[in-house]
Write a structure and sequence with these properties.
Length: 500
């Protein structure tokens, strides 16, 4: 058995797990003892959280390098929300904590690379660059340039995150880590929503009914858009796992994210999620069996909770004809306003993200178009619709290709989950506008980078079992003949001498 020069010998899994557990347990224990001295439960929780975060940072930096650490902090900094606002007479102009993490990481990368950066290529990145370029040109005709600049800043941030994620996801393990970070971010968002719902004075049922489960940086419909991206990814990771502890972990994550969608009470998110999962898993085959079982279990639990809990009253109210008519009436008014602005400015549009400015001036409501195509037609005109639609087409094509090139059932289960995630997002943006948020853009491009890695070449589930046991029906790998010691020294063997 020969060892390749670039392959390090495998470490014992038990020893590595023990070291990781010890590295996590020691700081948590120290923080708990310190907080116990202070005799304060909030301080104890904060100290334990800080200790866990510090241990996670050290572990991520040692295992995945500075790029992996930067991406992890970027996605998790979404939860910190807004750093400050820049009014300057505009309707919007915000700086997020994620922008600060992004700037620090770019400065470090430029310093380490002597002010040169290698940018990877992918169809969705090229499409985002074209959209950003046309959006920058639209600022020349924008009613409020600051609002357009704020939106352009978000697209530039998404481009940087997408390029960094593409550079990081160079193998299956790293691509799966990216997807895991997307799911973890969704779980933390859902847990924050649950905390808000159960700590309001009116109680969780009334908070859901009145759509009060908002976070400081996002409202319920927008948060639901993030969660319907994370839930199919969690189901894909569940189906691609070969060990029961990992399956239980991803199943718990899927349950937490599904609970967040329920707390959002977003009808559009539920419709988009059902459509995406239904289309993707209808043709998923036996590869999606585990994920489909979890979906059925989630549906059964949801029905049981609605039947015996107070949320069935919330659902009954939200599905009343009057509530549906009010919601659809609002959207139809927005669609008519978007069509009117497109008729007035068919070539240039009103400027990137300036539909909200026009809406505020005419109706007094600062809102977005709630339809992907109509919104970009009104803001960028006919020439801008093609670069706006191109990224979505590239993402759907990449996820479909990853599904088609999967070499084993577990890899196909992961690809089916990614296909369902992008389908759900495409459907959801037909009657919501989650694409206008920077947090959603960052999660979307991170998922797209992992999907593009799986779409570039045939892939198999990156597990020890899948590397040892070949897929049934697959061709055996070629066996390379090993030269003997005498042949390596230049001495011909008797058999070779007779052949000569």
């Amino acid at each position: 058995m020969t060892v390749l020069p670039f392959a390090a010998p495998a470490r014992p899994r038990a020893g590595r797990a023990a070291r990781v557990a010890l590295a996590l347990a020691l700081p948590v224990a120290a923080a708990a003892l310190l907080a116990d001295r202070l005799a304060s439960a909030p301080v104890m929780a904060a100290a334990c959280g800080a200790a866990l975060l510090g241990a996670g940072v050290v572990w991520t930096a040692r295992r995945y390098g500075l790029l992996g650490l930067w991406l992890a902090l970027l996605l998790l900094s979404i939860l910190a929300g807004e750093m400050s606002a820049l009014p300057l007479g505009g309707q919007s102009g915000r700086l997020l904590w994620a922008d600060g993490v992004l700037a620090v990481g770019l400065a470090v990368a430029l310093a380490r690379g002597r002010f040169t950066l290698a940018v990877p290529r992918a169809p969705f990145l090229d499409a985002l660059a074209a959209l950003g370029a046309w959006g920058a040109l639209s600022l020349l005709v924008a009613h409020d340039p600051l609002t357009g600049i704020a939106e352009l800043k978000e697209w530039v941030a998404a481009l940087v995150v997408g390029a960094a994620a593409l550079s990081f996801a160079r193998d299956d393990r790293r691509a799966r880590l990216l997807l895991g970070l997307v799911v973890v971010t969704g779980v933390l968002v859902a847990l924050h929503m649950a905390f808000v719902a159960f700590t309001t004075r009116s109680g969780p049922a009334l908070a859901v009914l009145l759509k009060l489960v908002d976070l400081p940086w996002g409202r319920t419909n927008y948060l639901a858009g993030l969660l319907i991206l994370a839930l199919p990814v969690a189901l894909g990771l569940l189906g691609s796992s070969d060990r029961w502890p990992a399956r239980a972990l991803w199943a718990a994550a899927a349950v937490a994210v599904a609970a967040g969608i329920v707390l959002s009470a977003s009808k559009g998110a539920v419709v988009a999620l059902v459509a995406g999962l239904g289309i993707a898993y209808a043709g998923g085959g036996r590869a999606a069996r585990a994920s489909a079982l979890v979906l059925l279990a989630l549906a059964g639990v949801a029905v049981a909770l609605f039947a015996v809990g107070p949320l069935h009253q919330v659902v009954a109210y939200r599905l009343q004809a009057s509530a549906l008519d009010y919601s659809m009436g609002q959207r139809m008014d927005l669609y008519r306003l978007a069509l009117d602005q497109f008729a007035r400015h068919p070539l240039t549009g009103v400027g990137l993200n300036n539909f909200s400015v026009v809406s505020h001036r005419l109706t007094g409501v600062d809102t977005v178009p709630h339809n992907f195509e109509l919104g970009f037609l009104a803001e960028l005109g006919v020439p801008g619709l093609a670069p706006a639609v191109w990224p979505g087409v590239a993402l759907l094509a990449a996820s479909w290709r990853a599904r088609a090139t999967a070499r084993d059932p577990r890899a196909r289960a992961l690809a089916v989950g990614l296909w369902a995630a992008f389908l759900g997002c495409a459907v959801h943006n037909q009657f919501e506008s989650t694409l206008y948020g920077q947090q959603f853009k960052m999660l979307l491009v991170a998922t797209a980078a992992a999907t593009w890695h799986f779409a570039r070449a045939p892939h198999a589930a990156s597990h020890p079992e899948s590397r040892i046991r070949p897929h049934p029906g697959a061709a055996a790998p070629p066996v390379r003949r090993q030269d003997s010691d005498s042949e390596r020294r230049g001495i011909a063997s008797p058999a070779r001498a007779r052949r000569r």
